[in-house]
C-alpha cells in the first residue's frame, strides 16, 4: 500500500510546560500538588528540568529527524503577579523559539495548557467575567515581545476536557474536581487547602478543569476570541487555533442518541468559538462506545493502556473524518499517544494511527500535520511520574535522556514522509 504523505506534512512531538519544565511554583497546579490531602501521586519538583535543558532537548529532537516542536508558555512565569510581566521569562521563551529555528523545528505554541497563575484564583479563576480580558492581556504581552517567532499558536489546549473529565473520572474511579458535575460532587478537603495556598477561598478557586457549565464555557469561548483578536492584530500571519480532546464516539444498537448527545457535548457546542480560526487542533487517544445504558466498558479481552482506557489507534482516523464533516479548517493532529512501558506497542500505535490519517488525506481531508504526545516521559498530573507516554525516557535521578525506538520510528517518518511497516 502506498503510504506516502504530502511533502509539507508537518511531523513532530509535543510537551506542556508544567509537565516538563519543573518548579512552576506560581501555578495553581503547584498548590494542588502541595495541598493537604492532595491526591497527586508525586510532586512535580524539577520535573525533567526542561526549563534548563531545553536546548539539548531540542537538539536531540532534531537529531532524531523530527521537524516540529509543540510546547506551551507558562502564564504564571510570564505574569507572576497581575499586570506584572517578567522580562527574564519572556527572554527564556524567546530563546526556546530561536533554538527551534536553529535546529530546523517548526514551533507550535500553546498559550495555555491547563495550568494558570495562582493569583488568578483570588479573582475567581475561570469563573470570573474578568478572566477573558486578563488572558487576552497576557497573550498581547507575549505577542508584542516574541510573536514574530510564532507561526502557529493554540490559545488553549483541550478546551473541552473539563466536560470529558466527567466520563474519564467516573470510569477510572477517581474523585472528579469540584465543579465538573455541578451539584453531584462536593469539594474534597484538599481543594480547600489548595485554595488557601493560592490566597483565596474554595468558592473562588475555579481552575481550568472546572469549566464545564454553560456560563464558564461561554467565558472560555470569549477568552479564545479575545486572544485571537489581539494576536491577529499584532501578528496577522500567525495561524491561530485551539485544540480539543476527542475520543472516537461510537454506539451499538440502542446507544445512538446517547452517543450523539456526547458528541454534541464534547465537540459541537464549541464550534461557534472556532469561527474565524486558521486551523483546528485535534487530539485523540481512544474510543468511547455507548449502548442503551450509557458508556460501555471495554471487552474483557481488550488491550488497555496504563491510563486504563482502550488501546485503539484506529480511533484517530475515524474521529478525523467526523471532525472534517463539521469544519472546513485545516486540521493538525496536535496530540496522539499511548501510555505504555511496551515501546513496541507505541510504535504500532503511531503506525496504525498514521495509516488512518493517510487514508483521510487520500479521501481529500485537509490534515496538515501530526504532533505526537509526548516527547518525554514526564509529569502526568495527578498520576505523577507513573505514566509512560514519552518517545524519550528520562532518568530523573540524573536527568539523562534515553531515546526509545518509537522516537527513531517517528523521526524516520518525519524525514521520509513514508510510513514504515
Keywords:
14 strands, EC 3.2.1.21, single chain, glycosidase, Glyco_hydro_1, alpha/beta, TIM Barrel, three-stranded mixed β-sheet, 421 residues
What do you see in this structure?
The chain has helices spanning 17-20, 28-34, 50-64, 75-78, 87-102, 118-122, 131-146, 161-172, 189-197, 214-234, 256-266, 315-326, 343-362, 405-416, and strands at 10-14, 68-72, 106-110, 152-154, 239-241, 243-245, 248-251, 280-284, 287-291, 294-295, 331-336, 367-373, 392-395, 400-403. With 421 residues, it is an alpha/beta fold. The chain has one domain (10-416): Glycosidases (TIM Barrel). It has a 9-stranded parallel β-sheet with strand order 5-4-3-2-1-12-11-8-6. A hairpin with a 4-residue loop joins β13 (392-395) and β14. α2 (28-34) packs across α9, α3 packs parallel to α5 (87-102) and α12 (315-326) packs parallel to α13 (343-362).
CATH hierarchy: architecture:
Alpha-Beta Barrel
Helix content: 25-40%
Number of helices: 14
How many discrete domains?
1
Hey, roughly how much beta strand do the residues contain?
5-15%
Secondary-structure element string: EHHHEHHEHHEHHHEEEHEEEHEHEEEH
Give Rg in angstroms: 20 Å
CATH superfamily: Glycosidases
Uncertain segments: 172-187
Shape: globular
